[in-house]
Amino acid sequence: MNSDKLMNGDFAAVIAEMTNEEKVALLAGHRMWKTKAIERLGIPNIVMTDGTYGVRYSIHQIDNEEAGGVDFSAFLNVVGQRASHVEVAWGAMKQATCFPNGSSLGCSWDVDLANKLGTALAMECQEFGVHLLLGPGINIRRTPLGGRSYEYYGEDPVISGDFAAGVINGLQENGVGASLKHFACNNSEVERTSMDSVVDERALREIYLKGFQRAIEKSNPWTVMSSYNRLNGVQAAEDHWLLTKVLRKEWGYEGLVVSDWHGIKDRPASLAAGNDLDMPESETRKSDLLEAIGAGKVDMAVVDEACARVLALVRASKLGERRNMVFDRDAHHKLARRMAGESMVLLKNDDQLLPITPAKVKRMVVIGEGAGVPVIQGSGCATTTPTLVDVPIDEIVKLAGDAIKVEQYRGTSEVESERAALIAEAVEGARGADVVVIFVCTENGYDGEGSDRTTLDLAPGHDALVSAVAVVNPNVVVAIASPDAVVMPWVPEVKAIVEMFFSGQATGGGIADILFGVVNPSGKLTTTFPKRMQDMPSYLSYPGENGRHYYSEGIHVGYRWYDAREIEPQYPFGFGLSYTNFAYSDLKLDRSALNVGEEVVASFTVTNTGAVAGKEAAQLYVSYGKPRLQRPKRELKSFAKVHLAPGESKRVSLTIPAADFALYDSGKGRWILDDDAVQIEIGSSSRDIHLAAPLQIRSRASRHREVKWDTQPVFILANPIARAKFNQFLQKHLSIDEGEADRMLEHCANSFFGMFTTFDRRFRQAFPKGDIAALLADINQTMADEETMAR
Fold first, then answer.
1. pTM of this prediction?
2. What is the mean predicted confidence (pLDDT) over 402-408?
3. Which of 219, 402, 425, 537 can bridge 165 by disulfide, Cβ–Cβ 3.0-4.6 Å?
4. Catalytic site positions
5. pLDDT tens column, 609-658
6. Helix axis angle, 111-128 relative to 329-343, nearest 10°?
7. What is the DSSP letter of 59?
8. What is the mean pLDDT of the chain?
9. Strand pairing class (548-550; 196-198)
């Protein structure tokens, strides 16, 4: 009977029968990866686990319902033996497909591919019995040093939000819930559970929250995960402004908010703020909440509402179950290989060294430990135990066939004393080869949770290896495995560079396909590669000090910073080469002016002017004219990936709603669409714009700031609404005519005091405080009404 109530959605009836102890238990989860089952009321549990690019299923913790950590007595038994090696880990894990990591897949610029990833992950979750996958993660890659950068899609909220929506829809359309994370501003692993991310409200709204807002609007994830850090002084998991005012009231989100694991420090405060589910189970936090409820310190309506959200999640999860599902390992591996090939970025290809063909290459040398043991993923909660791993050298040999001789040299080592000999051996082996492929990577141990990278350099010895080989052979291809951007002092010395990022279990097949032209590279960067660390936007304020991390660059994150400072990057946002060429032409907008509530459609033609089929990621940016407030030089607003046969042309249409041109005016506390003459730009990267067309943004939004008691006369006189109302105010209170009131205002124009102080100082005139307050409220409300009239 009770189960029927739950499955029929009658949550209020179920909650009415629950004791306070049962409510607290329901809101606290069960062990590490489940919600609490309450058999008396017919409430089953559901299973959740980590995974942004693969399903990490801990057999011991899920199947055996083990708690996290290690039993204290067991710890004491071994502490004398080798305590430093006692690890609180996940134990044995089921094999699942390790797809390309976020920083890799984002470079595909293909939302349909993101949707396919979500669908594949759902199939694997269904086989494993997982109801909720804790991803995708979309924190902005503010700094390429971030330890979890490999999980995230890029430095821009448009591509981050759209990719997240693709993954979420793929998951949830197939009966598995998603958890959009980490909300918000968890952009570094330095002191990640206590660091205070200090972000001005405009940057917070336009950059760091925008991707979440966009993903929620396009996919409605079943859950949102609060982050570990503090945000402007408040623990994110306990931030009422973030979780209730913004997420629920402004964005209309109705799903469940779940904490990051042990991310809650004050359970009653977190529940009051809007954090429904506390994970994992903690007897301490359960006791704290139950005590607060008993003392009347927690509103029971808030408790019941959170319980209803948990029940709604349980119901949706049970309705989505497909327990007869068995995913096709081979098909998923092939999908992972396709994703890898479409995501790798060709950064350089002088003299058309690539692709490798028997006509050009008879002897090929492959160097680097990564050729035999590929770096396929980062470390931490997202780590997946792969079903299969493609070894790059094996895949290269397969595609080389009998026509090309392939030799292999180790070239590098983590042991410093071995490096010189290995480099010397590789240099000798590279002499006379028609092409040399060198696999390099970043330093092991700085690519995951708990630590940020300390440098943008490659692992020790790798730069020296590349330079040494390039001295004896100019035909060098460098294949890079990295979580994010790296610096490349050897760029002028080599002919070709392929950035693989962390491309998953099919990395070997993916890079082989690129090298031999089986796949025409179409990946483009979703982050800027600087020439040196000092050029990074966050360089002077990262990683913060005394527990505070100031986001000093404001809205100028990523490519916005390089554009504003006119800094030449090594490779710009959106950049990536192909084995063919593309031409852009005939940009047309469906309107010349855009009003609030409308949308503009930009149409243009892309033509493949080369000899092979390829895919082009076309990018639409907006460049502002004379903005009222500071804005970036250009901002990404939309994108599309198009496949073209040789000589083929296709018409591409991108639709941008007027709201996407708005800025967040922190002075007025709302989004404003400013009146401005902008340019719609179409490019193949943020630094390679091919087409542009003018668009007039029409808005009733006032270009004037809100008027306060101490607003200086110069600003009031420039504001028609404020000037007119001040004139009327003076006429009424001083019994003067309009002309006299205007002359009085003009006499105040050069004062640097507020208008009312100036009245007092120059005319010895004071006014009732209540009347002043009413005047200011009337002015500001009139301006606000004007701004919304066209909606």
1. 0.94
2. 97
3. 219
4. 260
5. 999 999 999 999 999 999 999 999 999 999 999 999 999 999 999 999 99
6. 150
7. I
8. 94
9. parallel
CA distances (Å), origin 357, targets 121, 279, 556, 558, 566:
36, 54, 43, 37, 40
Could you tell me the two tokens for 186? 């968890």
pLDDT at residue 89, as a whole number: 52
Q: What is the 3 state secondary structure string of 93-106?
A: ECCCCCCCCHHHHH
Stretch among 20-29, 65-74, 335-344, 752-761 having the lowest mean pLDDT: 65-74
In three-state secondary structure terms, 365 is strand
* Integer Cα distance of 18 and 24 in angstroms: 10
- The pair of three-digit structure tokens given for residue 124, joined into one six-digit string: 């694997």
How many residues belong to the chain?
A: 791
Report whether 242 contacts 184 (CB < 8 A). yes
HEC profile of 670-726:
EEECCCEEEEEEEEEECCEEEEEEEEEEECCCCCCCCCCCCCCHHHHHCCHHHHHHH
CA dihedral 382, 384, 389, 392 (to 10 degrees): 10
**Model confidence pLDDT, tens digit, residues 256-276:** 999 999 999 999 999 999 999
Token look-up 């696999």 returns 439
Reported as a single tens digit per residue, the pLDDT across 741-787 is 999 999 999 999 999 999 999 999 999 999 999 999 999 999 888 77
Distance from C-alpha of 257 to C-alpha of 272, rounded to nearest angstrom: 12
Cα separation of 605 and 610, whole Å?
A: 15
Cβ neighbours of residue 370 closer than 8 Å, sequence gap 6 or more: 392, 439, 440, 441, 479, 481
For residue 653, give the amino acid letter. S
Structure tokens at 458: 């490659």
Query: CB–CB of 86/167 below 8 Å?
Result: no
